[in-house]
């Protein structure tokens, strides 16, 4: 009988994956920015977010000036106050990764964000050689951050002695879907070489399943009728919002079989497409089935 074991991916396994991803940075850079990284929309997005973060920091600093009980601080003009008490743009980002104008590190960082996206949509499965059990590995964001900073230190992009003080920047990337698809393929090729397969979990279907569980508990709760009805209405509205993204006509929000069929027909997931392109097979958990969200692995 096959046993399923769930654990975080070890540092060594994580580092193997991330080092292979780092080696792909020149290819990714050329793929995303054939005219040079500084001209790419991704570099521009990162620059804008770095500038916005520093601007918000300065706003907070100036708010502190207004609230200060020190008369001298209150009498200072804003420019003088900022020059005296605030970090400049470079100083503010000096312990954030990637730093200012670190082209290769910016590429590595957004490449890592895609790996985190894959992890958020499920976990990695590793079949033991004795075929007796399957290990489900979860890639924790904090572990990805730790190992990535370690690699950056080894490549001398950040000081090794200061690695513990660095943090990932809080960036979001507006991807071109085809470029994202191509980058996802590279990641899945790395995972395939390391003999992992992907267990995909759709976050929208998972949320709908959670809504059903909540609705079931509400039916037996001691809440007043009005509160119960209001919450049940909110649950139905939430489910309908997900369904309406893929079908304009009405669909029974409690017909999960019909919702599953709808998602299989109309939801496009580029990570699944990239996986199929690499593995020539669907990931575990796709096509979607009802038991994936209610009965775990009992029918696998």
UniProtKB/TrEMBL annotation:
It comes from the Bacteria. This is Uncharacterized protein. The lineage of its organism: Bacteria, Pseudomonadati, Bacteroidota, Sphingobacteriia, Sphingobacteriales.
């Amino acid at each position: 009988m096959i046993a399923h074991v769930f654990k975080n991916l070890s540092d060594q396994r994580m580092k193997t994956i991330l080092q292979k991803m780092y080696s792909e940075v020149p290819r990714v850079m050329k793929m995303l920015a054939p005219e040079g990284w500084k001209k790419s929309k991704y570099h521009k997005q990162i620059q804008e977010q770095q500038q916005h973060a520093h601007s918000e920091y300065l706003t907070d600093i100036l708010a502190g000036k207004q609230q200060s009980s020190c008369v001298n601080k209150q009498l200072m003009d804003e420019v003088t106050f900022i020059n005296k008490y605030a970090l400049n743009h470079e100083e503010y980002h000096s312990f954030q990764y990637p730093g200012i104008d670190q082209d290769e590190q910016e590429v590595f960082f957004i490449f890592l964000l895609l790996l985190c996206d894959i992890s958020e949509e499920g976990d990695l499965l590793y079949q033991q050689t004795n075929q007796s059990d399957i290990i489900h590995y979860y890639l924790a964001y904090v572990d990805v951050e730790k190992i990535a900073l370690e690699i950056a230190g080894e490549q001398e992009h950040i000081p090794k002695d200061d690695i513990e003080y660095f943090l990932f920047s809080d960036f979001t990337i507006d991807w071109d879907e085809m470029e994202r698809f191509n980058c996802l393929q590279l990641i899945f090729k790395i995972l395939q070489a390391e003999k992992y397969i992907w267990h995909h979990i759709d976050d929208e279907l998972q949320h709908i399943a959670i809504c059903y569980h909540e609705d079931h508990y509400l039916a037996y709760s001691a809440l007043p009728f009005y509160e119960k009805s209001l919450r049940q209405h909110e649950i139905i509205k939430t489910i309908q919002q997900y369904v309406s993204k893929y079908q304009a006509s009405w669909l029974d929000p409690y017909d999960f079989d019909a919702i599953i069929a709808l998602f299989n027909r109309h939801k496009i997931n580029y990570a699944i497409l990239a996986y199929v392109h690499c593995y020539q097979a669907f990931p575990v958990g796709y096509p979607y089935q009802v038991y994936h969200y209610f009965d775990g692995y009992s029918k696998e």
